[in-house]
From TrEMBL:
<dbReference type="Pfam" id="PF01047">
    <property type="entry name" value="MarR"/>
</dbReference>
<dbReference type="InterPro" id="IPR039422">
    <property type="entry name" value="MarR/SlyA-like"/>
</dbReference>
<dbReference type="InterPro" id="IPR036388">
    <property type="entry name" value="WH-like_DNA-bd_sf"/>
</dbReference>
<dbReference type="InterPro" id="IPR000835">
    <property type="entry name" value="HTH_MarR-typ"/>
</dbReference>
<protein>
    <recommendedName>
        <fullName>HTH marR-type domain-containing protein</fullName>
    </recommendedName>
</protein>
<feature type="domain" description="HTH marR-type">
    <location>
        <begin position="16"/>
        <end position="148"/>
    </location>
</feature>
<dbReference type="InterPro" id="IPR036390">
    <property type="entry name" value="WH_DNA-bd_sf"/>
</dbReference>
Length: 156
């Protein structure tokens, strides 16, 4: 029998608990791979997600940024303050309501966001090296199905 290690027979039934445990370990391994790639960029783990979201969405109010990152507003506020001090993001006032501010990338932040994309490409390529393009497509679709089943549509 083929195994991933002595305690994980790959041909055994995959109950709900087994799948979620495997998913948690895969998530941890992915985070570690990205963290290793971030060394030398000046970014702390988690900040790369802020850059990626701002690159994708453009400027966002802190509350909306917190929602897309799935963190509390105070956490997003503290993170963006640190990133602003590092010159990665800036606050921009709403033209119709000066009390409302949004966060957007600086030129340096946009450059680093592109670096983050490269980091995710490298880490992802290593993670998926043994999967065919069809396996990758199926895995992506299955992961999005799990996500939407567990917490609703992430695009909301």
């Amino acid at each position: 029998m083929t195994t991933l290690d002595e305690s994980w027979p790959v041909d055994s039934p995959a109950g709900p608990r087994d799948v979620l445990i495997a998913l948690r370990f895969a998530d941890r391994a992915a985070r570690k791979a990205v963290a290793a790639e971030l060394v030398g960029t000046g970014l702390h783990t988690g900040q790369e997600l802020v850059l990626a979201k701002l690159l994708h969405h453009g400027s966002l109010p802190v509350a909306k940024l917190a929602k897309v990152l799935d963190v509390e507003v105070p956490t997003a506020t503290k993170t963006t303050q640190r990133m602003e001090a590092a010159g990665l993001v800036r606050r921009v006032k709403n033209t119709t309501d000066a009390r409302r501010v949004a966060i957007e990338l600086t030129d340096h932040g946009a450059e680093l966001a592109q670096t983050v994309q490269d980091i995710y490409d490298r880490a992802g390529s290593r993670a998926l090296a043994d999967l065919s393009p069809e396996d990758r497509r199926q895995l992506r679709n299955l992961l999005w199905t799990l996500t939407t089943t567990l917490e609703g549509d992430p695009r909301d």
